Amino acid sequence: MQRIIALVILLIPGFLAALGIKWMRDTLFGILHPPIPALWLQFLSGFVLFALGLGFVGGFILHRDRKRNKVQPRFQKK
User: Fold this and answer.
1) How remote is the C-alpha of 59 from its chain's centroid?
2) 68 pLDDT band (50/70/90 cuts)?
3) N or C: which end of the chain has fewer CB within 10 A?
C-alpha cells in the first residue's frame, strides 16, 4: 500500500513537469494556450512547472536513498 501511495505522490509532480516541458516546446513553435495571455509568460510558467516537478522528484529520491544509506558520503547528512 505504501508503494502505491509513493507512486501517486510522484506522479503528480511528474505530470506537472511534463506539462511544463510541453508549454516550453509550444512556445518555441508559437502555439499559445488559452489561459495564458503571452508567449513569454507561457514559457516562464512552463519553466517554473518543470523546475518544481523535477526538484520534487529529485528531492524525494534523495531523501529515500539517504534513509537507506545508499548515497555517496558527500550527500549524507552531517
Assistant:
1) 10
2) very high
3) C
